[in-house]
Amino acid sequence: MTDVPAPPFPAGPEHAGDPGDTPCVVFGHTFFSKLEDVCFRLSEQTGEPVMNIRFAKNDVSLPIHGIKKELNLKEGDADFQMLDQCAQALKYVKGLRLGDPLPRELITREASWQLSARHATIAYQRIAVQLVNWMTGGEQLITDPDELLQLADDPHIKKNINLAFGEAAERMGLGRDHKEEVVHHVQTLAHELAYIEALRERVRRVEEMYQKIQGLRRLYGRERSVLEVADQVARLCGRALEEFKASFFEVDAQTGEILAVLRNLTSQIAYIRDKRDDLHARLMAWDEILEEWDTVQVKLGQDKPELLRRAYHFLAPRYMMVNEWVLMTRPRPAGEGASQLGKDAKSKKPIHVMRW
User: What is the pLDDT of residues 254-274, one digit of tens each?
Assistant: First the structure.
């Protein structure tokens, strides 16, 4: 029996090609070279891309659109385009300094963050199980990462995976003697899905935070002021968790028909990368608060009320539900009275979520 091919080597920034091939943050105008401690970030107040600088011992934020205007830059200018690229890059990284490489997501659509061998193996095993299920007509649904890792050493599973590669090659019109092409497709797909697995694991930290919040709710059940905040935080964190899980469910559903995915690999990879970047961008905002909650112990303490308030301030602007109320001051046609306003109120648009 031929050995089952190994999962693809986990690629990261250092494995994804020559770093010298990646464009860096460089400007031609002397304005930029005279500035101190330049860093492009998203404004904490407005969320717009800004250039932070150090000026006369003070931190100053300059909006990117304002820089273009003050320097009289035109769309065809290299500095104008570089400013645009820096603004777009802030979807993938928290900050960019002069000389930093632009994120690979902008240049090649590859991920610019490190991938582990663990996640590559989990993704590969998930696809392998899908192939075996397709071949045998089974419905063995394995989602637990640790269980998937254990399957990597199961001789029976290895044998079935090899058979599945041959069957898939035959069904795809390649012939059983060309199953190496199927192997290559599977390895390519596994590499892309490994990033989804890594993000899935990061969301488990959100779930752990949610469970701790629920624990604090129970502990502070008799302290109304603290409980009110804890209730709101639990509701908002639960809503965030539901949104993340819905995104993973979409990816799993889209890649569930494994043979169809392998036949349309290019379009499927484009879809996976879009979801990867969306999830990564949303999770980046959680880094600091998750780091704080990682060490939280579910017990009474003087720090807990303030901890819950900070969590609320993080979650509310991102996940608070907002109703689109009827504009009461709009001009009303003659004869329109309270009854008509009541109809308008009942037919208001669906609830929307404020995004981060």
Answer: 998 999 999 999 999 999 999
Which of 9-18, 70-79, 302-311 is the least confident region?
A: 9-18
Distance from C-alpha of 162 to C-alpha of 164, rounded to nearest angstrom? 5
Cα→Cα distances 64→36, 44, 51, 100, 273, Å: 16, 15, 6, 18, 27
Query: What are the structure tokens assigned to 224, written together?
Result: 């109304």
- Quick check: 15 and 25 in contact, CB under 8 A? no
Name which of 266, 263, 265, 267 is nearest 174 in CA terms.
263
C-alpha 6/C-alpha 28 separation (Å) is 47
Contacts of 116 (CB under 8 A, 6+ apart): 10, 198
| Length of the chain (residues) | 356
The H or E element spanning position 111 is none
For residues 176-199, average pLDDT: 93
- Tell me: the pLDDT tens digits for 94-145? 999 999 999 999 999 999 998 999 999 999 999 988 898 888 886 666 767 8
Q: Taking the alpha carbons of 139, 141, 146, 149 in that order, is the dihedral positive or negative?
A: positive
Partners of residue 55 on adjacent β-strands: 58
* Domain range list for the chain: 21-107, 119-294
Q: Name the most confidently modeled range: 30-39, 289-298, 346-355.
A: 289-298
Q: Are 220 and 304 in contact (CB under 8 A)?
A: yes
Tokens of 228: 């009110």
* Run of H or E residues at 238: helix 224-254
- 62: three-class secondary structure by DSSP: strand
Q: Which amino acid is at 139?
A: E
